[in-house]
Amino acid sequence: MNAAETPFEFVTVSYLTRIGNQSAGSPSELLTGLEHCSDASIFHHTYQTLGSHHFLTEGFSNDFAQWVLADTNRNDLAEQLAALDIRDYVSIAALRSDLCRVVRDFCEAFPHFAKQSALERFYFCESVEVTAPLGRSARTLDEFRDGIAHLSHAGFYFHFISSRLRLQLQTNDFSHWLSDGLGLQTLAESVNNIDIYTNTLDGSRAKLLRLIERERRKA
Amino acid sequence: MSETLAVTRIPLDDYAELLGAGEIEELRALAKPLRGRSIQMVNSTAVGGGVAEILMRLVPLAEELDLNIQWEVMSGGEDFFEVTKSFHNALHGAPYHARPRDFEIFLAYNERNRATLPLDAEFVVIHDPQPAGLIDARKPGSNHWVWRCHIDLSHPHRGVWDFLEAFVSRYDGAMFSSPEFSRQLPIPQYLFYPAIDPLSEKNCHLDPVFIAQILARYRIDPQRPILTQISRFDRLKDPVGVIRAYRIVKRYFDCQLVLAGGSASDDPEGAMVLKEVLREANDDPDIRVIELPAWAPLEVNALQRASTIVIQKSLREGFGLTVSEALWKKKPVVASAVGGIPIQIIHKHTGLLAHSVEGTAYQIRFLLSHPEIAAKLGENGHQHVKENFLITQKLKRYLTLFLTMANKP
Fold first, then answer.
1. Which of residues 307-366 of B touch A (CB under 8 A)?
2. How far is CA B25 from CA A33, A163, B31, B199, in A?
3. Which of A128, B195, B261, B295 could form a disulfide with B394 if both were Cys (CB 3.0 to 4.6 A apart)?
């Protein structure tokens, strides 16, 4: 069996949520918050929330969209915010810019609604990340499959979702290693195409394991 | 006299069946750099109350991970606990006439405990206002002190908070159950949710035969929909509002209402509220008002598991962990959007939020009409609790906090 020169090291992650000093009570205040909050805050309410709500597949995309929907009852703005796909971004700056654009466009188009008070305020928080090696690595596809099967949700999230920002590439740790380590470009691409918005993390993992299984049968 | 509590070890692997082996492996990986390092949890009571209940389960789990953890309980006389109860209520926003003598009593007991408690661990976690003054025992630069606040500080009594803030500002960090409950402070503030233990008597799996016995004991019909609110008889839990919502639902569905809470016999206000509830129930044979013993976890568990819909129609709430208890049991929940409830109920994803009697009734009717949606909300709610509000997640948050603090220059 093909073995990679550089092994895949399995890691897990844990996040502490730091409460920020900003909050918003209307879409226009949300815009101010988005413009001034830290990168860790944008990460928390988009990337990290996708990990902590990994079991939801219908209509949950990020905290901003959920708050606009539940507390300001503006489906149109919520839909626009929810449509931003974190897989399209390799930097927080670019994601922030698009979040601001969407909310700014809404505020300009509907100045009356922009100032309307929300039912509950939105509190900006930040993620503080701590990673820990799991002491497990893989050089072959079999070892890789076993490692993925045993990963916690957080570990799977770390390698599959938040890795895009770390790699600064529109891919994830798994695909990156399958391509670079084992030379399995087609498999890497299929793995990267798994939809993290319409699948739960468990569903994504099951699809990934099926793709690996198919590849193993080919060998 | 202050005391160090010894607690029974719980095998961490017992949780693997519910959570998956990967989650337990993750806890061990996070704890590895902290092995043998000392931690002290300090609160003001060994039994009763949510904090003691959580520490009772958390401390042995941390020991399982080879952390050198101690649970210390500060001592205090009746006068101290009277003062801290007033402080507690005042911090929640209740009217309070501050007397200089109260602050003196608080300071005197904190000073006395500083002399007797061994506050020398690398990480010292002080729970709630009572022992907040122990920060004076901190030696310069030697260890990390954090303050865990379990109460809602969104509208505190100014005088009491100003007094307390002078201590709190000297900690390395503070933890709150909701961003809404926090204050503007010069130190980092973190979000720490309360937690339930899936293996405790209140949340563990129950034999259906036992559940059937409990229903029979309280003359509840298992064949018809059961709406349940588990709460002490307190106006802030709005039991009368729950009955009014039930009456609206009853026009459309042949359902039953269960209002179950701790006995009101030693609580004059509770007894008064119970009377109001019974008056409102007006001998309706489908309303069961149940006074449970002070500690009745299995009965609570059984009633929640037997319910078709669980209600938490509070007017004000702390975190409202009864919501997580119901969600863990995969029950659809209709609850008020107050306190920590919206953190647990993500509207239309893990349950339904309401803002009035009529709204509560409408959401209940909707769920009774759409059992498949109710089941989906219950399933999502279970996953939400698994991810965020279990004791193992709380332990993970503590490990992350300690690692973050230890790595700070």
1. 337, 342, 346-349, 353, 355
2. 38, 21, 10, 19
3. B195
Collapsing DSSP states into helix, strand and coil, what is residue A170?
coil
pLDDT tens-digit series, residues B256-292: 999 999 865 666 778 899 999 999 999 999 999 999 9
Amino acid at site A214: R
Smallest Cα distance from B380 to chain A, Å:
7
Which residues on B lie below 8 Å from A160 (Cβ)? none
Question: In this complex, do B337 and A128 lie within 8 Å of one another by their Cβ atoms?
Answer: no
CB atoms within 10 A of CB B54: 22
> Which sequence spans correspond to the domains of chain A?
14-126, 137-218
Q: Which amino acid is at B317?
A: E
Indicate yes or no: CB of B349 within 8 angstroms of CB of A56: yes
**Contact residues on chain B for A53, CB-CB shorter than 8 A:** 346, 349, 384, 387
In whole angstroms, give the CA distance from residue B49 to residue A190: 52
Beta carbons of A18 and B189 less than 8 Å apart: yes
Please give the single-letter amino acid code of residue B330.
K
Beta strands B68-73; B3-5: pairing state? antiparallel
What domains can be seen in chain B, in order of their start residue?
3-195+391-406 (3.40.50.2000), 208-388 (3.40.50.2000)
Q: 3-state DSSP call for residue A193?
A: coil
Residue of B193, B352, B400, B401 to mutate, interface with A, max A Cβ within 10 Å: B400
Q: Which residues of A touch B21 (CB under 8 A)?
A: 150
Distance from CA of A194 to the nearest CA of B (A): 21
User: Å from A189 to nearest chain B CA?
Assistant: 26
SS (H, E, C) chain B: CCEEECCCCCCHHHHHHHHCHHHHHHHHHHHHHHCCCEEEEEECCCCCCHHHHHHHHHHHHHHHCCCEEEEEECCCCHHHHHHHHHHHHHHCCCCCCCCHHHHHHHHHHHHHHHHHCCCCCCEEEEECCCCHHHHHHCCCCCCEEEEECCCCCCCCCHHHHHHHHHHHCCCCEEEECCHHHCCCCCCCEEECCCCECCCCCCCCCCCHHHHHHHHHHCCCCCCCCEEEEECCCCHHHCHHHHHHHHHHHHCCCCCEEEEEEECCCCCHHHHHHHHHHHHHHCCCCCEEEEEECCCCHHHHHHHHHHCCEEEECCCCCCCCHHHHHHHHCCCCEEEECCCCHHHHCCECCCEEEECCHHHHHHHHHHHHHCHHHHHHHHHHHHHHHHHHCEHHHHHHHHHHHHHHHHCCC
Tens of pLDDT, residue by residue over B316-346, are 888 899 999 999 999 999 999 988 999 999 9
Quote the ipTM score.
0.93
8 Å CB contact of B26 and A21: no
pTM exceeding 0.95: no
